[in-house]
Amino acid sequence: MTQELTDRRNSILQGRYTDALAIVGELEGMSKQAILRHLAEF
């Protein structure tokens, strides 16, 4: 998942917002604890 988040961040920085928003659906399916664990990896 870390690579996916990095890819989304790069998408935002490059103005590819449709690609970046794809992470929202993925995060919605995760528990709050799982989201926090993945975000903490940054």
Protein architecture, described:
There is one protein chain. The protein has helices spanning 2-13, 17-28, 32-40. With 42 residues, it is mostly helical. The protein has one domain. Helix 1 packs antiparallel against helix 2 (17-28). It is flat, with a radius of gyration of 10 Å. The model has no long low-confidence stretch (mean pLDDT 77).
Comma- or semicolon-separated keywords:
mainly alpha, flat, 0% strand, 3 helices, 79% helix
Main sheet record: none
Name the beta content range. under 5%
Mean pLDDT rating: 77
Number of DSSP helices?
3
The helicity comes to over 70%
In N-to-C order, the SSE pattern is HHH
Brief overview, please?
It contains 3 helices and no strands.
What's the SSE blueprint?
Blueprint lengths: L1 H12 L3 H12 L3 H9 L2
Helix pairs in contact: 1-2
